[in-house]
Amino acid sequence: MSDLPFTLDQLRILKAIAQEGSFKRAADSLYVSQPAVSLQVQNLERQLDVPLFDRGGRRAQLTEAGHLLLNYGEKILSLCQETCRAIEDLQNLQGGTLIVGASQTTGTYLLPRMIGMFRQKYPDVAVQLHVHSTRRTAWSVANGQVDLAIIGGEIPGELSESLEVIPYAEDELALIIPVFHPFAKLEKIQKEDLYKLQFIALDSQSTIRKVIDQVLGRCEIDTRRFKVEMELNSIEAIKNAVQSGLGAAFVSTSAIAKELQMGVLHRTPIEGVVVKRTLWLICNPNRYRSKAAEAFSHEILPQFANPGWNQDVLKLSQKNIVLTTLEVATPASSGED
What we know:
Blueprint: H1 8-20, H2 23-30, H3 34-48, E1 53-54, E2 61-62, H4 64-88, E3 97-102, H5 104-121, E4 126-131, H6 134-142, E5 148-151, E6 164-177, E7 198-202, H7 207-218, E8 227-232, H8 235-243, E9 249-252, H9 257-262, E10 266-267, E11 275-283, H10 291-299
Parallel strand pairs: 3-4, 3-5, 7-8
Antiparallel strand pairs: 1-2, 5-11, 6-9, 6-10, 6-11
Helix pairs in contact: 1-2, 1-4, 2-3
Protein backbone atom coordinates (compact mmCIF):
# COMPACT_ATOMS: atom_id res chain seq x y z
CA MET A 1 0.00 0.00 0.00
CA SER A 2 1.77 3.17 -1.19
CA ASP A 3 -0.36 5.60 0.87
CA LEU A 4 -1.71 4.99 4.36
CA PRO A 5 -5.53 5.08 4.44
CA PHE A 6 -5.57 7.19 7.62
CA THR A 7 -3.89 10.23 9.14
CA LEU A 8 -2.72 10.91 12.69
CA ASP A 9 -5.52 13.46 13.06
CA GLN A 10 -8.06 10.80 12.16
CA LEU A 11 -6.57 8.43 14.73
CA ARG A 12 -6.78 11.17 17.36
CA ILE A 13 -10.43 11.76 16.48
CA LEU A 14 -11.19 8.04 16.65
CA LYS A 15 -9.56 7.81 20.09
CA ALA A 16 -11.46 10.88 21.35
CA ILE A 17 -14.82 9.48 20.23
CA ALA A 18 -14.07 6.16 21.91
CA GLN A 19 -13.12 7.93 25.15
CA GLU A 20 -15.95 10.47 25.19
CA GLY A 21 -18.71 8.20 23.87
CA SER A 22 -20.13 10.71 21.40
CA PHE A 23 -19.11 12.75 18.37
CA LYS A 24 -20.14 16.01 20.03
CA ARG A 25 -18.13 15.50 23.23
CA ALA A 26 -15.15 14.34 21.17
CA ALA A 27 -15.38 17.51 19.07
CA ASP A 28 -15.52 19.64 22.24
CA SER A 29 -12.46 17.88 23.71
CA LEU A 30 -10.51 18.48 20.49
CA TYR A 31 -11.76 22.10 20.12
CA VAL A 32 -13.19 21.47 16.66
CA SER A 33 -16.74 21.44 15.30
CA GLN A 34 -18.91 18.33 15.34
CA PRO A 35 -19.39 18.43 11.52
CA ALA A 36 -15.60 18.39 11.14
CA VAL A 37 -15.36 15.28 13.31
CA SER A 38 -18.17 13.55 11.43
CA LEU A 39 -16.57 14.37 8.09
CA GLN A 40 -13.21 12.94 9.17
CA VAL A 41 -14.88 9.71 10.33
CA GLN A 42 -16.79 9.41 7.06
CA ASN A 43 -13.58 9.93 5.08
CA LEU A 44 -11.79 7.36 7.22
CA GLU A 45 -14.53 4.77 6.75
CA ARG A 46 -14.56 5.41 3.00
CA GLN A 47 -10.77 5.07 2.77
CA LEU A 48 -10.78 1.81 4.76
CA ASP A 49 -14.01 0.59 3.15
CA VAL A 50 -15.38 -0.62 6.52
CA PRO A 51 -17.81 0.90 9.05
CA LEU A 52 -16.11 1.95 12.28
CA PHE A 53 -19.16 2.87 14.36
CA ASP A 54 -22.64 1.42 14.94
CA ARG A 55 -24.96 4.38 14.45
CA GLY A 56 -28.06 2.84 16.04
CA GLY A 57 -27.60 3.65 19.74
CA ARG A 58 -27.36 6.88 21.70
CA ARG A 59 -23.68 6.25 22.48
CA ALA A 60 -21.06 5.93 19.74
CA GLN A 61 -20.17 2.23 19.69
CA LEU A 62 -17.14 0.91 17.82
CA THR A 63 -17.53 -1.97 15.43
CA GLU A 64 -15.04 -4.84 15.44
CA ALA A 65 -13.02 -3.00 12.78
CA GLY A 66 -13.23 0.18 14.88
CA HIS A 67 -11.83 -1.60 17.95
CA LEU A 68 -9.01 -3.04 15.87
CA LEU A 69 -8.06 0.35 14.41
CA LEU A 70 -8.30 2.00 17.86
CA ASN A 71 -6.00 -0.62 19.39
CA TYR A 72 -3.27 -0.03 16.80
CA GLY A 73 -3.97 3.70 16.62
CA GLU A 74 -3.26 4.19 20.34
CA LYS A 75 0.10 2.46 19.93
CA ILE A 76 0.96 4.60 16.92
CA LEU A 77 0.04 7.81 18.76
CA SER A 78 2.04 6.68 21.80
CA LEU A 79 5.15 6.16 19.66
CA CYS A 80 4.62 9.57 18.04
CA GLN A 81 4.60 11.20 21.49
CA GLU A 82 7.70 9.22 22.44
CA THR A 83 9.44 10.47 19.30
CA CYS A 84 8.64 14.09 20.11
CA ARG A 85 9.98 13.68 23.64
CA ALA A 86 13.21 12.15 22.31
CA ILE A 87 13.70 15.17 20.07
CA GLU A 88 13.01 17.52 22.98
CA ASP A 89 15.81 15.81 24.88
CA LEU A 90 18.31 17.30 22.48
CA GLN A 91 17.89 20.51 24.48
CA ASN A 92 19.61 18.80 27.44
CA LEU A 93 17.00 19.36 30.17
CA GLN A 94 16.28 22.93 29.07
CA GLY A 95 12.75 21.72 28.40
CA GLY A 96 10.99 18.44 27.82
CA THR A 97 8.57 16.50 29.97
CA LEU A 98 8.77 14.02 32.84
CA ILE A 99 5.71 11.81 33.36
CA VAL A 100 5.57 9.94 36.67
CA GLY A 101 2.87 7.50 37.75
CA ALA A 102 1.73 6.42 41.21
CA SER A 103 -0.95 4.52 43.01
CA GLN A 104 -3.28 6.39 45.34
CA THR A 105 -1.30 6.72 48.58
CA THR A 106 2.15 7.22 47.02
CA GLY A 107 0.70 9.69 44.53
CA THR A 108 -0.99 11.74 47.25
CA TYR A 109 1.73 11.87 49.91
CA LEU A 110 5.13 10.77 48.53
CA LEU A 111 5.41 11.81 44.87
CA PRO A 112 4.54 15.51 45.38
CA ARG A 113 7.59 15.86 47.68
CA MET A 114 9.83 14.14 45.14
CA ILE A 115 8.52 16.22 42.26
CA GLY A 116 8.98 19.40 44.28
CA MET A 117 12.66 18.60 44.77
CA PHE A 118 13.06 17.79 41.07
CA ARG A 119 11.38 21.03 39.99
CA GLN A 120 13.76 23.06 42.16
CA LYS A 121 16.71 21.60 40.23
CA TYR A 122 15.09 21.54 36.79
CA PRO A 123 12.44 24.29 36.61
CA ASP A 124 12.28 24.17 32.80
CA VAL A 125 11.12 20.54 32.71
CA ALA A 126 7.36 20.10 32.66
CA VAL A 127 6.30 17.39 35.13
CA GLN A 128 3.07 15.38 35.01
CA LEU A 129 1.87 13.12 37.83
CA HIS A 130 -0.68 10.44 36.92
CA VAL A 131 -2.39 8.93 39.99
CA HIS A 132 -4.49 5.83 39.35
CA SER A 133 -4.92 2.26 40.57
CA THR A 134 -1.86 0.02 40.56
CA ARG A 135 -3.20 -1.93 37.58
CA ARG A 136 -3.93 1.11 35.45
CA THR A 137 -0.58 2.70 36.37
CA ALA A 138 1.33 -0.46 35.43
CA TRP A 139 -0.35 -0.57 32.02
CA SER A 140 0.49 3.10 31.46
CA VAL A 141 4.16 2.35 32.09
CA ALA A 142 4.03 -0.71 29.83
CA ASN A 143 2.46 1.29 27.01
CA GLY A 144 4.99 4.11 27.28
CA GLN A 145 2.49 6.70 28.52
CA VAL A 146 4.38 7.05 31.84
CA ASP A 147 8.18 7.11 32.28
CA LEU A 148 8.28 5.35 35.63
CA ALA A 149 6.00 4.81 38.59
CA ILE A 150 6.01 4.00 42.29
CA ILE A 151 3.19 1.72 43.35
CA GLY A 152 2.17 -0.28 46.40
CA GLY A 153 -0.03 -2.94 44.85
CA GLU A 154 0.49 -6.10 42.88
CA ILE A 155 1.57 -5.86 39.24
CA PRO A 156 -0.75 -7.62 36.75
CA GLY A 157 0.75 -11.00 35.92
CA GLU A 158 0.49 -10.43 32.18
CA LEU A 159 2.96 -7.52 32.49
CA SER A 160 5.69 -9.41 34.35
CA GLU A 161 7.83 -9.79 31.23
CA SER A 162 7.19 -6.25 29.92
CA LEU A 163 8.13 -4.30 33.04
CA GLU A 164 11.15 -3.99 35.28
CA VAL A 165 9.84 -4.22 38.87
CA ILE A 166 12.27 -3.20 41.63
CA PRO A 167 11.75 -3.14 45.43
CA TYR A 168 12.11 0.52 46.30
CA ALA A 169 11.03 1.39 49.84
CA GLU A 170 9.13 0.13 52.86
CA ASP A 171 5.89 1.89 53.73
CA GLU A 172 4.89 1.49 57.37
CA LEU A 173 1.19 1.41 58.19
CA ALA A 174 0.31 2.87 61.58
CA LEU A 175 -2.69 2.41 63.85
CA ILE A 176 -4.28 5.80 64.53
CA ILE A 177 -6.94 6.60 67.13
CA PRO A 178 -8.59 9.80 68.41
CA VAL A 179 -6.37 11.74 70.81
CA PHE A 180 -9.07 11.49 73.52
CA HIS A 181 -9.43 7.68 73.25
CA PRO A 182 -8.48 5.81 76.47
CA PHE A 183 -5.83 3.83 74.54
CA ALA A 184 -4.04 7.11 73.75
CA LYS A 185 -2.77 7.14 77.35
CA LEU A 186 -1.04 3.78 76.91
CA GLU A 187 2.54 3.39 75.71
CA LYS A 188 1.54 0.28 73.71
CA ILE A 189 -1.52 -1.87 73.26
CA GLN A 190 -1.77 -5.64 72.92
CA LYS A 191 -3.03 -7.59 69.92
CA GLU A 192 -6.24 -8.52 71.72
CA ASP A 193 -6.99 -4.83 72.27
CA LEU A 194 -7.55 -4.44 68.52
CA TYR A 195 -10.77 -6.43 68.77
CA LYS A 196 -12.15 -3.86 71.23
CA LEU A 197 -11.80 -1.00 68.74
CA GLN A 198 -14.28 0.26 66.18
CA PHE A 199 -12.54 0.53 62.83
CA ILE A 200 -12.86 2.84 59.86
CA ALA A 201 -11.44 1.22 56.75
CA LEU A 202 -11.05 1.55 53.02
CA ASP A 203 -13.22 -0.53 50.73
CA SER A 204 -12.59 -4.26 51.14
CA GLN A 205 -11.33 -4.48 47.54
CA SER A 206 -8.67 -1.76 47.93
CA THR A 207 -5.00 -2.74 47.71
CA ILE A 208 -4.01 -1.21 51.05
CA ARG A 209 -6.90 -2.94 52.83
CA LYS A 210 -5.76 -6.30 51.45
CA VAL A 211 -2.13 -5.63 52.41
CA ILE A 212 -3.14 -4.75 55.98
CA ASP A 213 -5.20 -7.92 56.27
CA GLN A 214 -2.31 -10.04 54.95
CA VAL A 215 0.36 -8.50 57.19
CA LEU A 216 -1.79 -8.63 60.32
CA GLY A 217 -2.69 -12.21 59.47
CA ARG A 218 1.02 -13.12 59.51
CA CYS A 219 1.15 -11.57 62.98
CA GLU A 220 -1.68 -13.91 64.09
CA ILE A 221 -4.26 -11.10 64.11
CA ASP A 222 -7.62 -12.06 62.62
CA THR A 223 -8.97 -8.98 60.82
CA ARG A 224 -12.28 -10.77 60.31
CA ARG A 225 -12.90 -10.13 64.00
CA PHE A 226 -12.45 -6.37 63.56
CA LYS A 227 -15.55 -4.26 64.13
CA VAL A 228 -15.58 -2.26 60.90
CA GLU A 229 -18.16 0.44 61.53
CA MET A 230 -17.57 2.44 58.38
CA GLU A 231 -15.91 2.07 54.95
CA LEU A 232 -14.69 5.20 53.19
CA ASN A 233 -13.05 5.71 49.80
CA SER A 234 -10.14 8.01 50.68
CA ILE A 235 -7.34 8.29 53.23
CA GLU A 236 -8.23 11.92 53.92
CA ALA A 237 -11.81 10.97 54.78
CA ILE A 238 -10.56 8.24 57.10
CA LYS A 239 -8.18 10.61 58.91
CA ASN A 240 -10.98 13.14 59.42
CA ALA A 241 -13.30 10.44 60.72
CA VAL A 242 -10.71 9.22 63.24
CA GLN A 243 -9.98 12.77 64.30
CA SER A 244 -13.71 13.24 64.92
CA GLY A 245 -13.79 10.23 67.23
CA LEU A 246 -15.63 7.81 64.94
CA GLY A 247 -13.10 4.99 65.25
CA ALA A 248 -9.55 3.74 64.63
CA ALA A 249 -7.76 3.02 61.36
CA PHE A 250 -4.55 1.78 59.77
CA VAL A 251 -2.97 4.34 57.43
CA SER A 252 0.45 4.96 55.88
CA THR A 253 2.83 6.88 58.12
CA SER A 254 3.53 9.19 55.16
CA ALA A 255 -0.12 10.29 55.28
CA ILE A 256 -0.20 11.36 58.94
CA ALA A 257 3.03 13.31 59.51
CA LYS A 258 1.24 16.67 59.59
CA GLU A 259 -1.58 15.44 61.87
CA LEU A 260 0.85 13.89 64.35
CA GLN A 261 2.88 17.08 64.46
CA MET A 262 -0.28 19.12 65.09
CA GLY A 263 -1.42 16.66 67.76
CA VAL A 264 -4.85 15.98 66.22
CA LEU A 265 -4.28 12.22 65.81
CA HIS A 266 -2.61 9.67 68.06
CA ARG A 267 -0.43 6.86 66.73
CA THR A 268 -0.65 3.77 68.93
CA PRO A 269 2.09 1.10 68.75
CA ILE A 270 1.06 -2.56 68.99
CA GLU A 271 3.21 -4.87 71.08
CA GLY A 272 5.31 -7.07 68.79
CA VAL A 273 3.61 -5.93 65.57
CA VAL A 274 5.04 -3.78 62.77
CA VAL A 275 2.83 -3.43 59.69
CA LYS A 276 4.83 -2.74 56.52
CA ARG A 277 4.34 -3.10 52.81
CA THR A 278 6.81 -2.85 49.95
CA LEU A 279 6.67 0.03 47.48
CA TRP A 280 7.78 -0.95 43.98
CA LEU A 281 9.50 1.09 41.30
CA ILE A 282 8.39 0.07 37.82
CA CYS A 283 9.63 1.07 34.37
CA ASN A 284 9.66 -0.32 30.84
CA PRO A 285 13.25 -1.14 29.82
CA ASN A 286 12.28 -1.36 26.14
CA ARG A 287 10.99 2.20 25.92
CA TYR A 288 12.98 5.35 25.26
CA ARG A 289 14.14 6.87 28.56
CA SER A 290 14.25 10.64 28.55
CA LYS A 291 17.04 12.64 30.13
CA ALA A 292 14.50 14.07 32.56
CA ALA A 293 13.57 10.53 33.67
CA GLU A 294 17.25 9.65 34.08
CA ALA A 295 17.88 12.77 36.17
CA PHE A 296 14.85 12.02 38.37
CA SER A 297 15.98 8.41 38.84
CA HIS A 298 19.61 9.22 39.69
CA GLU A 299 19.11 12.37 41.77
CA ILE A 300 15.70 12.11 43.45
CA LEU A 301 14.78 8.43 43.83
CA PRO A 302 17.78 7.51 46.06
CA GLN A 303 16.76 10.14 48.63
CA PHE A 304 13.53 8.32 49.47
CA ALA A 305 14.63 4.71 48.92
CA ASN A 306 15.45 1.96 51.39
CA PRO A 307 18.91 2.25 52.97
CA GLY A 308 21.40 0.52 50.71
CA TRP A 309 19.14 0.74 47.68
CA ASN A 310 21.32 0.48 44.60
CA GLN A 311 20.12 2.74 41.81
CA ASP A 312 22.29 0.81 39.36
CA VAL A 313 19.71 -2.00 39.37
CA LEU A 314 17.52 0.34 37.36
CA LYS A 315 18.68 0.06 33.77
CA LEU A 316 18.60 3.70 32.77
CA SER A 317 20.70 3.67 29.63
CA GLN A 318 18.83 5.36 26.82
CA LYS A 319 17.36 2.86 24.41
CA ASN A 320 16.32 3.22 20.84
CA ILE A 321 12.63 2.88 20.08
CA VAL A 322 11.94 -0.76 19.24
CA LEU A 323 8.95 -1.95 17.29
CA THR A 324 8.42 -4.88 19.64
CA THR A 325 6.84 -2.46 22.11
CA LEU A 326 3.82 -2.40 19.82
CA GLU A 327 2.89 -5.79 21.23
CA VAL A 328 1.74 -4.21 24.50
CA ALA A 329 -2.04 -3.83 24.43
CA THR A 330 -4.40 -1.49 26.24
CA PRO A 331 -5.88 -2.96 29.46
CA ALA A 332 -9.45 -3.18 30.54
CA SER A 333 -10.51 -0.65 33.15
CA SER A 334 -9.99 -1.56 36.79
CA GLY A 335 -10.93 -0.34 40.23
CA GLU A 336 -8.95 2.15 42.23
CA ASP A 337 -6.06 1.22 44.44
